[in-house]
Amino acid sequence: MIRDFISYLTGIKGYSENTALAYQKDLTRFAQWVRASHPSAKWSTITRAEIDEYIQERAGAGVSPATTNRELSSISGIYRYFIRQGWLTKNPCRYQSRRKQGEHLPTTIPLEELKTAYNNSVGVTRIWLGLLMTTGIRLGELLALTWEDFDFNANSIEIHGKGNKDRIVFSTTEVLEPLRKMAQYKPRTGKLWDRDARDVRRIIHDALRAFSNARQLSPHTIRHTFATAFARQGANVSTLAKLLGHNHLATTQRYINMASVETRQACAQYSLI
């Protein structure tokens, strides 16, 4: 059952391998718990009370609300799949209460430190940093880029995001100029970089670490920084969601909230009274 669901997520829904693996991990852990605690239970007989019991046990073991809420989403997801396939008619997770958790604001890198890392990088590392900084794309989206995705006249890039949803983002002439020159001598097919994501993540981390002491230094932290800076400049949530490729506005809203928190802190710091 779980294997069929994971195949559906990757093959039909277009979920990334990492996202599908997260679902698989959550559901496998839950299935193992069911087999140990309720040996006679099946997917078709599991009740909300049993799911409550599982979440309470996880919470008692010190698992964070964010993690147990994600696990509930995974369990609910597989039941929605069962219903869509016509195998079941009810989702015991449908009205499941999520655990409360504090507001989580994205971790960012100070803009000056980010710019310094970019200005002091060379070669492909500088190109990667520039693209991530000016577009907010994900690492997987960066490594999936092909020459056909670029319109150097418009400084635009077509991104093939999660769920097979395409979008257009924009960079700058400075960032794209090295690629424009490379494109004159490169074949116009295939990916720009055939690189392992872990290696690229490490290279970017090292480039940032030389100039920043931020708590998290990764391509995704650059994405957070881009989104927060964009929101700080007054971007509305709908526009920002389109640039980031978010399916739900609630996901994007946290960057607007981040900008609001920073504005409030600045007002408190520079108050004339």
Structure notes:
The structure is a single chain. The chain has about 270 residues and is mainly alpha-helical. It is about 60% helix and about 5% strand. It is built from twelve helices and three strands; from the N terminus they run αααααααβββααααα. The chain has helices spanning about 1-10, 15-35, 50-60, 65-85, 110-120, 125-135, 140-145, 175-185, 195-210, 220-230, 235-245, 250-270, and strands at about 150, 155-160, 165-170. A three-stranded antiparallel β-sheet has the order 1-2-3, with no helix packed on it. A hairpin with a 5-residue loop joins strand 2 and strand 3. The N and C termini lie far apart (about 65 Å). The model is unreliable at about 260-273 (pLDDT under 50).
Uncertain segments: 261-273
Q: Which word captures the global form?
A: elongated
Estimated share of beta-strand residues: under 5%
Read across the widest sheet, the strand sequence of neighbours is 1-2-3
Number of helices: 12
Q: How is the main sheet built?
A: 3 strands, antiparallel
Q: Would you list the SSEs in sequence order as H and E? A: HHHHHHHEEEHHHHH
Question: What integer is the average pLDDT?
Answer: 83
Helix content: 55-70%
Distance between the termini: 64 Å
Question: What's the β-strand tally?
Answer: 3
Rg calc = 22 Å
| Class inferred from helices and paired strands | mainly alpha
Brief description of this entry?
This protein has 273 residues and is mostly helical. The chain has helices at 2-11, 17-37, 48-60, 65-85, 111-119, 123-135, 139-143, 173-183, 197-209, 219-232, 237-244, 249-269; strands spanning 150-151, 156-160, 166-170.
